[in-house]
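Hi, here's the filled form for the chain we discussed.

Project: internal
Contact: R.S.
Residues: 572
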Amino acid sequence: MQKRWSIKGKPGDEDVKKLSTELNIDDILSSLLLHRGITTLDEAKYFFRPDINHLHDPFLMKGMEKAILRIEAAFEAGEKIMIYGDYDVDGTTSVALVYSFFKRYYPDLDYYIPDRYKEGYGISTQGIDFAKEHGFTLIIALDCGIKSVDKIEYANTLGVDFIICDHHMPGDEVPDAVAVLDPKQKDCEYPYKELSGCGIGFKLIQAYAQKNDIPFESILSYLELVAISIACDIVHITGENRVMAYFGLLKINSDPCIGVKTLMLAAGRTEHYSISDIVFSIGPRINAAGRIDDAKHAVQLLIACTEEAANEKGSIINLKNIERKEHDLNITDAALDMIDRDPAMIARKSTVVFNADWHKGVIGIVASRLTEKYYRPTIVLTRSNGHVAGSARSVYGFDLYEALCGCSDLLTQFGGHKYAAGLTMPPENVEAFSARFEEVVNATITDEMLVQEIRIDAELKLKQIDAKFFRILNQFAPFGPENMSPVFITKNVYVSGSASLVGANHIKMTVIQEGSASFDCIAFNMGEHLAKMAKGIPFDICYTIEENVWREKRSIQLNIKGIKTYDAMIVE
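And the returned structure, exactly as it came back:
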């Protein structure tokens, strides 16, 4: 896959110098701050020093007062309360957080996770019927519900009340629930709009604690679950999310709850977790429960109070994760083969593949892998309960949700974000949908969007990377969407010592630039460049700067994102 390099525009020299002087930092670091909209000393202090006091008053969120009053009324009347959540990481962490908090103060509540295969995404009729049959009169729905207008109407006829805590975009009509918490509602004046579903759950318990004089310190520990949700739901790591992610990571890396510690042990490490580490090691294990079997296993692990209970659920989840990997590998290979054997599919600007026998639980992962391979909007479809279900992924800059709106007459339902979505349709619409989706993508995507871009923040000399530079750069973390780890370009570097192939296709080497110290580097999946890495031949690199920890020794390492030799203009 070819990638293009693009360097972000430089902020104004005067602005850079002013901020550098005020903060006593390198001009490059000032440029990085200005790219993030940070222009003053006070804004920089806010950014570099996350503080719990930066969290907003939860009662600024529309519907919060009504939600808390209804919960208090339910407690007083001895009602049965159901905590209802989606089956992915954001949903299961949300349920674990809200359930375990309220369980401390009220005994008569339980939780419910819909079956991915029998009930599908979001609030289901089966879930409402279960609540009615078992005497639940209040459901707190997390990470879902904002578009469940008909389901809430049905629940109202049965005398089952709903509080909806969601972070997805509302439709034209908002459900007639007792309270709807979603900062993306047009008339919600909550200052931060990008919370995860678990983040909304946290604001709910924060509001209850605030109203009932429960010390804020007693809910701080729940931020580890919020951090996991922020990482795995790919929400912005700015503002309030960044504060919660920062303190959540502190908890994960110092004193994780039993369930999270079990997941860390299964992943093979128990410290130095970043947002990226959560995405690639903790998240897939939590997700595996709902993808392969029952997401309740994930909730049971996350609320476990004893090591014995955590180990039991952890073992089940690990087995499901192994099974998930097998399905993932087999379906990805089959999908790649399907595309490679069809010249017409290769020539398209979108990918739509369908096989009735593929495992529904992993089609989202497969869609991501196909997007990495062909770098274009991708949808993977399979048969599920008489319908065709699909998972969609997009490329940078292309609004997938809008593209699906252009196909809505062929779909039973769809929902999601700009870059990821889910959908269902009647089986007879698959061919027409595939053609229409290609039509819509072809008409709206640009050629530039179809070439993966490495967005470079600044050019850097290796000699600028000293202890102070690295210390301040580390304070930009936690990294993630809208606050990505900065990517630098350095030109005319040389191999110092040797370059070797490690693992399947990775290059490990040490590089040097004139006048600099040498730096260890790792270049994942770039083994094809090894032949050109001979000592004495100059090349350009773009990279992020990270800390490598090996046997308690810490060192600066460059994580190479691209290598450009002087006989090639576009490189991996």
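Let me know if anything looks off before we file it.
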